[in-house]
Write a structure and sequence with these properties.
The complex is a heterodimer of chains A (369) and B (629).
Chain A: H1 10-13, H2 18-38, H3 43-65, H4 68-92, E1 94-96, E2 99-104, E3 109-110, H5 113-128, H6 137-155, H7 160-176, H8 181-202, H9 205-215, H10 226-238, H11 249-252, H12 264-297, H13 301-325, H14 343-361, H15 363-368
Antiparallel strand pairs in A: 1-2, 2-3
Helix pairs in contact in A: 2-3, 2-12, 3-14, 4-5, 4-6, 5-6, 5-7, 5-13, 5-14, 6-7, 7-13, 10-12, 12-13, 12-14, 13-14
Chain B: H1 2-6, H2 11-46, H3 48-59, E1 60-65, E2 72-73, E3 79-91, H4 93-96, H5 99-109, H6 114-125, E4 133-136, H7 141-150, E5 157-166, H8 174-177, E6 180-182, H9 185-193, E7 205-207, H10 210-214, H11 216-220, E8 224-230, E9 236-243, E10 250-253, H12 257-266, E11 272-278, E12 283-290, H13 296-299, H14 304-312, H15 321-324, H16 334-344, E13 353-355, E14 358-360, E15 367-369, E16 377-379, H17 381-386, H18 390-400, H19 402-411, H20 433-440, H21 446-453, H22 463-474, E17 485-490, E18 497-500, H23 515-529, H24 536-539, E19 547-553, E20 576-583, E21 590-596, H25 602-626
Helix pairs in contact in B: 12-25, 16-18, 16-23, 18-21
Classes of the chains: A mainly alpha (369), B alpha+beta (629).
């Protein structure tokens, strides 16, 4: 490949986006500190998490080396591969806790919906970038169909959290491709109908229960409302300054359910207070801003749409997780990105950032090519 | 489609469009983050205090610490009621999982019968979350050991120790000490109404009978609290603050366990009661009612298998005969009547009557017999007591009339509860005109008074009343009401305070001629020392001087000319044997009242019981002196 070393920094040559990397590193160190507290000062869990972070970083670094053009070329294949896996899950997947989300690979279990978290935005970007923007109604409809296939397959498992994330990534691609405001307004108006359809035909009893509990957790404080109430108590009792690292009674005494995974934000806000939360949100905003900047600066429509979609989906993680932990949204299994303990989702997220870095650092090469 | 694709892409406008959309999206992101933040502000700032409180409520649990119940000692410091650790098998079902997983193997390991298993499954249905349930109470040490070895197989199941009451002397002291048992619903309401709920928050037991019940407030102590930090499963992680409980007061009784055991031995196999008093202070040295029962059975909740014989037995072991037994006092009242006769001037020390073996009220045909068929002949006051002449007292009672008798005997406590410090007491009955009108709606007949003259008819008394009256007699009118508790020891951190039981300071009985006391006491001494005294044989070999009076009470009414033949009538219709007495004669230290149901003659049956106890008392005393005390 042609290169102009004089003009490019070492980071650029390594295809690493400096600001993004800094943002991610700050976020992850913060995450490790909270995880240490939330896991009951378990060095073992912190170590495991660090190992996964390492794997994620390697994935990110490798994916950053691949030029966007290559991604674009392989997108349809990758997407079809993902869909195949999802169908395989429904047929031969492993059941656990009432859901069928995993494929047994012999050595480890694997969650194909994670693949789709990248495959769908890629596919949407691939499809929409074939035509010039703003996308026409017909393309929007076809795009919506492309997006609906994996969303429904995942919702069927059932995995409401992931299907929301997948659907959002597709939607953001449509939005960024210039879907008309009139259509958006119409969809917004149709939302109640969609809710009704979802409730009646797609939601499982436990999911409905989660929603009902969300609407009024205090009706069943020891039953299904317990999680939300305890989580809100943790956040509220943290106050402005927080109880201090390792000092959160709600988390240390195990009142918070799953304190190191989905509810880690409750631990964080209990121990670091509103000030800590402000800091955390600033880091997130910084990462999102950088992602949006990369997308705007990308020179190819495919790259623009993909970068924007990945970045905005990253935000959906944050919003849904914090929203559910603080009682604004019903409980759906969405982790706090790069802070929650949990392997696959973190590797996927970092892989996404690898793609972002690729888009960011291959810009000029593309222009020259 | 292909036609449209031909149009040249305007990269500039596409970039602009995308940038605008990206900008909108970013604004949208910021807006949603502000929504999150405003909600967090609401939780962490506006409602911080509420959640702070709820967080503390979650974390801090106030656990009661049950105070140790006061101990009970006899007068020599021997422990009569103690607190022993007992072990129960408790299950936290959240941790142990469903019983079908472990109950069978556990039942094989320890003896858990089906009734217990069933009881447990029932309890399981209405348990509270994270509240452990007791599967089995009162484990033996062997069971504790067996389970401890296998504990790792049963998560969530543990052995809990707590202190429960134990009465080492068992049935010897049941009627005095009473017992504690599980607090029942009614008692819970009473505790609540007395405003004591908080103090009983950690208590399982409450005094049900006897001293345990009478001194419940003193024995119970004051509850303490422990503020603990708990985790979401209710496990205690650390103690934040302790407010130590104050143990209940120890009771030191006037009772002497040695005498009590002697009394128990003396009554073995018989129905009856013995009361032994110290006349100088009214302290009860022994109080035993036979048959008795093991109070320890009640502490853990008595099984119906153990309980039903107790309530169905004809011998009625649950009755405290010493304080609740209404016995005709029979001839034991003669000294008191003699005193009244002297006091009233109807007789003097030297007044004699002729006893032909029967008595008749003027103009009434009916004859009242003497127990001695051929009569005592010429009888003075001393002889009338010593030989228990009935005719003397028929005549005296007739002449006194019921009103004077009722009034005078009331001064000795007949017909009234002695106020002893247990609740199981009756005042028995001292008859009067008013009483008969009220009870039987009949006027008082002269004939009724005749029976009263020999302590029969409507007159009943408890052994405790007889002992108390005898003590008053021996004290020449000074009244020392009977009581069990000598002192209470108030437990404190550095030292113990002693509260002595105060003498109620009752005004003494005064006579117009105080010499009359000695006349009657001398007569009581004659009962023992004169050759024809009714208790002479019993105390002939005693190393101490004794004064007393025997009594033989008819249980069934007899026609005037019918003869009493012990062999012909059924065992339960035989006479009751009574005895009252004190020793030494010139310095009363010990007063005894004995009542034996259907035993026969007072002198030959009840007297030996008194003799055994007095022997023990003076033997012990000699030993103490020999030991240089």
């Amino acid at each position: 490949m042609v290169n102009n070393p004089a003009k490019r920094s070492i980071w650029f040559r390594l295809h690493i986006d400096g600001p993004l990397l800094v943002g991610l590193l700050i976020l992850m160190s913060l995450g490790l500190a909270v995880l240490y507290s939330a896991s009951g000062e378990s060095t073992n869990q912190v170590f495991k998490h660090s190992v996964r972070l390492g794997i994620g970083f390697v994935a990110m670094f490798i994916l950053a080396q691949i030029p966007p053009m290559t991604y674009r070329r392989w997108t349809p294949v990758f997407f079809l591969f993902g869909i195949t896996l999802l169908i395989a899950v429904l047929v031969i997947g492993i059941q656990s806790k009432g859901a069928q989300r995993w494929l047994n690979l012999g050595v480890t279990r694997f969650q194909p919906s994670e693949v789709m978290k990248l495959a769908l935005p890629m596919m949407m970007s691939w499809y929409l970038s074939q035509y010039h923007l703003p996308s026409r109604f017909k393309h929007i409809v076809i795009g919506a169909i492309i997006m609906a296939i994996p969303t429904l397959l995942i919702a069927k498992q059932p995995d409401l959290g992931t299907s929301i994330l997948i659907a959002s990534s597709g939607f953001f691609a449509l939005f960024l491709s210039g879907m008309s405001w009139a259509l958006l307004a119409f969809l917004a108006a149709m939302a109640p109908v969609a809710v009704y359809v979802m409730w009646t035909f797609f939601m499982h009893t436990y999911q409905k229960q989660r929603v009902l509990t969300f609407l009024d957790p205090e009706t069943d404080p020891l039953g299904s409302g317990y999680h939300i109430i305890q989580s809100k108590i943790a956040i509220g009792s943290g106050g402005v300054q927080g109880k201090g690292w390792l000092q959160g009674t709600q988390s240390q005494l195990e009142f918070i359910p799953e304190p190191h995974t989905d509810f880690i934000f409750a631990v964080f806000s209990e121990e670091f207070g509103l000030l800590g939360v402000l800091g955390l949100l600033c880091i997130y905003i910084f990462i999102i801003a950088r992602g949006m900047y990369i997308s705007v600066k990308a020179q190819e429509t495919y790259g623009k749409l993909l970068a924007g979609s990945i970045t905005l989906t990253f935000f959906v993680y944050i919003f849904v997780n914090i929203g559910m932990v603080s009682g604004l949204l019903p409980v759906v299994g969405v982790p706090l990105p790069l802070v929650s303990y949990g392997g696959t989702s973190m590797v996927t997220l970092l892989a996404g950032f690898g793609v972002l870095m690729s888009i960011s650092t291959h810009r000029r090469l593309l222009a020259q090519g | 489609m292909p036609y449209q694709q031909i149009t040249i892409r305007d990269h500039g406008s596409e970039s602009n469009l995308f940038a605008r959309r990206a900008f909108f999206a970013f604004i949208f992101v910021i807006a949603l983050i502000l929504v999150l933040l405003s909600n967090l502000y609401h939780l962490q700032v506006q409602r911080h205090d509420t959640y702070q409180t709820r967080s503390n409520d979650n974390r801090i649990s106030v656990r009661p610490i049950t105070p140790n119940r006061g101990l009970i000692f006899d007068r020599n410091g021997i422990l009569l009621a103690e607190n022993r650790p007992t072990y129960s098998l408790d299950v936290l079902i959240e941790k142990s999982g469903k019983p079908d997983k472990w109950l069978k193997s556990l039942a094989d390991l320890l003896t858990i019968d089906e009734a217990l298993q069933e009881k447990f499954t029932k309890k399981l249905k209405r348990r509270r979350r994270f509240k452990s349930l007791t599967l089995k109470n009162n484990l033996s040490e062997q069971e504790v050991a067996k389970f401890s070895v296998n504990q790792h197989k049963y998560p969530g199941i543990s052995i809990e120790a707590r202190l429960t009451r134990f009465y080492p002397y068992g049935e010897a002291l049941t009627h005095a000490l009473g017992y504690v048992g599980k607090i029942n619903k009614k008692e819970l309401v009473d505790i609540d109404q007395a405003g004591n709920s908080a103090n009983y928050a950690g208590s399982y037991d409450i005094g049900k009978q006897g001293l345990e019940r009478y001194y419940e407030n003193e024995l119970h102590g004051t509850i303490g609290y422990r503020e603990v930090e708990i985790n979401s499963r209710g496990r205690i992680l650390r103690t934040l603050k302790v407010d130590a409980p104050i143990p209940g007061n120890d009771l030191i009784l006037t009772l002497d366990i040695d005498l009590q055991k002697t009394a128990q031995a003396a009554l073995k196999g018989r129905r009856g009661a013995v009361v032994v008093l110290d006349p100088k202070d009214g302290g009860i040295l022994a109080l035993y009612s036979n048959p008795s029962y093991d109070p320890n059975l009640f502490v853990h909740g008595i099984s119906s298998k153990d309980y039903s014989p107790l309530i169905t037995s004809l011998d009625r072991p649950l009755i405290n005969r010493a304080t609740q037994g209404r016995y005709p006092p029979a001839s034991t009242v003669k000294p008191f009547l003699a005193l009244l006769g002297l006091e009233d001037g109807l007789v003097t020390e030297t007044t004699t009557i002729h006893d032909p073996g029967f008595y008749r009220i003027p103009n009434v045909k009916r004859k009242w017999r003497d127990w001695k068929k051929w009569g005592h002949g010429k009888v003075d006051l001393s002889m009338s007591v010593a030989q228990s002449c009935d005719i003397y007292y028929y005549d005296l009672a007739y002449k006194l009339g019921i009103d004077k008798i009722t009034d005078f005997m009331g001064k000795f406590g007949f017909g009234e509860r002695t106020g002893v410090d247990i609740h199981e007491e009756t005042g028995a009955n001292m008859p009067s005109r008013g009483w008969k009108r009220g009870q039987h709606n009949q006027p008082w007949y002269a004939g009724d008074t005749i029976s009263v003259g020999i302590g029969q008819g409507y007159w009943t008394a408890t052994p405790l009343q007889l002992a108390a009256a005898t003590a008053t007699m021996a004290n020449k009118g000074i009244i020392r009401p009977p009581h069990f508790v000598m002192q209470q020891r108030v437990q404190k951190a550095d030292q113990n305070d002693i509260i002595n039981t105060e003498d109620p300071d009752r005004p003494p009985i005064t006579l117009t001629d105080e010499k009359n006391w000695q006349i009657v006491l001398n007569a009581m001494e004659q009962t023992v020392s004169s050759v024809r005294g009714t208790a002479h044989k019993i105390f002939r070999t005693a190393k101490y001087t004794v004064a007393g009076k025997t009594g033989t009470a008819q249980v069934i009414g007899m026609k005037e000319d019918e003869e009493y033949d012990e062999k012909k009538i059924s065992e339960r219709n035989r006479d009751n044997a009574m005895f009252i007495g004190y020793a030494p004669f010139d310095d009363p230290q010990i007063v005894i009242a004995v009542a034996l149901e259907n035993a026969g003659h007072g002198g030959s049956e009840a007297g030996p019981v008194a003799r055994m106890i007095m022997d023990k008392y003076f033997n012990n005393k000699d030993k103490l002196i020999a030991n240089g005390q």
